[in-house]
């Protein structure tokens, strides 16, 4: 799938969903605020979100870390429209910038004039990107020395009832979301290839997977 095809696909999914996205997702995108609390960027640091959607996470993070600058990109143009509106409502245009971009080849220098960032995070976006392994490899090029990548996404529901897992996965497929059983092994490969450390947690009885790759 090309960047243009991915953009059209995501715009189709979120053409109307964007208006209720934040209201409806808060009940099942568990762990997003835990990720934000764990970013802990340095004073005056720069933070990048991959797949920023409506900018909900960027706004929360900007309020929590008032000395930092925040950046985000998304392949969906309709979601970026909502993001810009949300950022303006929060009066954070001076601290948050968003742009169009493909997670497999995003060029931070071209988009924001910054090639690398102190923190890079991906919140419930990885499972929507078919070449998600390529994304994990690419984001490591966007992280500065001493920086870290933070990931939260759907887990395998291993400690929850089988019927719940089946129903959840069926429902997620309606939005082109495919939880990846190979996430942890793939992250371990990334650590070996980039000489970084990995912290991996299964949260909420396997509902979410939370990982930090630290340089």
Q: How would you describe this structure to a colleague?
A:
This protein has 215 residues and is an alpha/beta fold. It has helices at residues 3-17, 21-25, 32-39, 56-64, 77-89, 108-112, 132-139, 162-173, 183-194, and strands spanning 46-50, 69-74, 96-100, 117-123, 143-154, 197-203, 208-214. Helix 3 (32-39) packs parallel to helix 4. It is globular. It starts with a helix and ends with a strand. Mean pLDDT is 90; it is low at 18-24.
Beta-strand percent range: 15-25%
Largest sheet: 7 strands, mixed
Helix count?
9
Shape: globular
Distance between the termini: 31 Å
- According to DSSP, the number of beta strands is 7
Rg (CA only) = 16 Å
Fraction of residues in H or I helices: 40-55%
- With strands numbered from the N-terminus, the spatial order across the biggest sheet is 3-2-1-4-5-7-6
Mean pLDDT, all residues? 90
Structural class: alpha/beta
Low-confidence stretches: 18-24
Query: What is the chain-wise order of helices and strands?
Result: HHHEHEHEHEHEHHEE
Keywords:
215 residues, 7 strands, 7-stranded mixed sheet, 9 helices, alpha/beta
Task: Produce a short descriptive summary.
With 215 residues, this protein is α/β, with parallel strands linked by helices.
């Amino acid at each position: 799938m090309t960047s243009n095809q991915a953009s059209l696909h995501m715009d189709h999914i979120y053409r109307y969903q964007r208006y209720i996205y934040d209201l409806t997702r808060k009940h099942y995108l568990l762990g997003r605020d835990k990720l934000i609390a764990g970013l802990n960027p340095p004073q005056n640091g720069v933070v990048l979100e991959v797949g920023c959607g409506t900018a909900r996470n960027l706004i929360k993070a900007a309020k929590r870390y008032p000395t930092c600058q925040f950046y985000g990109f998304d392949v969906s143009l309709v979601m970026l429209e909502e993001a810009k509106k949300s950022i303006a409502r929060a009066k954070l245009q001076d601290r948050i910038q968003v742009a169009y971009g493909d997670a497999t080849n995003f060029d931070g220098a071209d988009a924001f004039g910054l090639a690398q960032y102190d923190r890079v995070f991906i919140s419930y976006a990885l499972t929507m990107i078919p070449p998600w392994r390529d994304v994990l490899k690419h984001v490591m090029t966007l992280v500065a020395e001493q920086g870290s990548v933070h990931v939260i996404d759907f887990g395998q529901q291993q400690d929850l009832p089988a019927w719940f897992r089946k129903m959840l996965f069926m429902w997620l497929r309606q939005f082109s979301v495919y939880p990846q059983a190979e996430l942890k092994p793939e992250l371990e490969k990334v650590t070996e290839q980039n000489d970084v450390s990995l912290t991996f947690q299964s949260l909420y009885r396997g509902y979410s997977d939370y990982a930090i790759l630290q340089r």
